[in-house]
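Lab notebook: predicted structure, single chain.

Context: the supervisor wants predicted structures on file for every construct in the current expression panel, including those that have not yet been purified. This is the next one on the list. No modifications to the sequence; it matches the entry in the shared construct table.
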Amino acid sequence: MHHALHMLDVPENECDIILQATFLLESPKMPNDVGTILATCESLNSIQVRRILTNYLPSPGEPQLRADVVEQLIIGAQNTVDEMLRNEGLELRIDEPVSLQLPFLLPDDGYSCEFVKGVPGGLAEFLAPFIQNGKLNNVFISSCTRLSSESH
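Prediction complete. Output recorded below exactly as produced.
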């Protein structure tokens, strides 16, 4: 997965966050696992850790999350990641800033280097929210002659 994300030109930090959230979900969460989890999930802030763990549903046969372990993980993230973000003047957020790194799909000039015949299935539905909120304009879905990512 890590290599596939790099092939899609996803920034390293976003890869880290995805991989660390996956690790947090998949790893054992017992008191003796707290140190390993904190060392591995070094990019997840306390808000993200809290959200992931409060919405976590253990698999059948897996023990329920212990409140003391959840609290230790949240405090650990507050003391490391949150502190680092504050020192860098960044705000704590549940989500990551949206930055679509898609130059391989939509070149900067808006034109595809290959001839595209027809509109790929689902393209119009995928683009609709971006068009509606003004993040994408000048899209001619019927002829698919030009895609533009110019902001309003």
